[in-house]
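Query form — protein FAD-binding oxidoreductase

QUESTION: What is the three-dimensional structure of this chain?
INPUT:
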Amino acid sequence: MTAMAPKNVDWNRFVDTLSGVEVIRDRPQVEKLSKDYYYFSPILQTQLADKTADLVVRPKSEAEVLAVAKACVAERIPLTVRGAGTGNYGQCIPLAGGVILDLSRLNAVKWVKPGMACVEAGAKLAAIDKVTQPQGWEIRMYPSTYRTATIGGFIGGGSGGIGSIMYGQLRDRGNLNAVRVVTLEDEPRVLELRGDDVQQVNHAYGTNGIITELEIPLGPVYPWAEVIVTFDNFMTAARFGQALGDTDGLIKKLISVHAAPIPSYFAGLKAYLPEGCHAALLMVAEPSMELFQELVKEFGGTVTYHKPAEETGKKTLLAEFTWNHTTLHARNVDPSLTYLQTLFPYDPELKLVQHMHEHFGDEVMMHLEFFRVGGAVIPAALQLVRFSTPERLQAIIDYHEANGALIANPHTYLLEDGGMKTINPVQVDFKAQVDPYGLLNPGKMRGWLERMAG
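ANSWER: The structure tokens for FAD-binding oxidoreductase are given below.
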């Protein structure tokens, strides 16, 4: 059962109850704030194109969030939380109308301590780093939308990113210390979840609590150089990426490997990417550069671009050509392209990667992002797919999974189906406690839908 916005809501009266909270009712703006990058998927394009909220509220304090929560519960109005809308799976698109809760004004960095920061949910990741980096600390990992994404949205809808080669994924113990959460009960409360309890709302698409504040661990600041290394052979590039990941003495933040013709889609890097090349886009700590060059030589690569750390704040940010930005750049050239998200099993020889690369060829172009899973370096793939039909896309997914590669399906808005393919009873139970009417981002949590149907 999906909560639906009551048809007889008196929206003028509803707004009056919010006493001073910013409300947006301009239809073009409401429609814009009801969307994310769901259109990367031709499947989601058709399912979500007509979904919009009735209005948007933009609180500037936790007290105002509580007021919005109380008003929505009183009228049984669905509420969908939004950060910057940089997700790709319809996480913040309201399936049942109602209210969009835009947390972009809740953006303070409240304090910074060695290795730790307390931030409000709407703080942008780059803005957090501007405060913490002068003190010697920085965000451990971030998506390619670093300059625009918010920390609350990243925790609610992300899984890892640039930095995951060092620190693993957001779900790993130690990558999120505490959160404050507003409930949608008859009398909304503020709960503080600490330690492993944070997993109740971590990567839950805002379906079971409104995150207003977070305590996040930080990593030490390194002088990061940006580097492009090109190769004549994709598997050589991939094995170089694996070797760099496995070389613990070389400090790195990004290992992103792209099969031809993907580098040809990067217009801003054209000068450094010879036609037909396979490329590794990297962030490496300056103290590691000398011995990094030895690894490049060992694999026969060519360094075509090296921006020293003191220049990395100027213009080109290699990270913005990696992870899901790769798909964005490719679609700017060819809008018919879509993508997959694939987790390969641990195999330093990359046999399954090679099989998929050779089996699908140009139909499924290989794009690897290396990160740590349980201490082991593993490639995740965000392959570019030449879309033909939904049936063919499903056949590609089925083939990967039949051969032992997990697909985190980016063509569904259901929380569980787009991730680990299992219902998390802890998150469902928490929703039952804090959102008994099922008003938070309804229709996205399969575990809740099944509980209500049963």
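ADDITIONAL NOTE: The chain has 14 helices and 21 strands.
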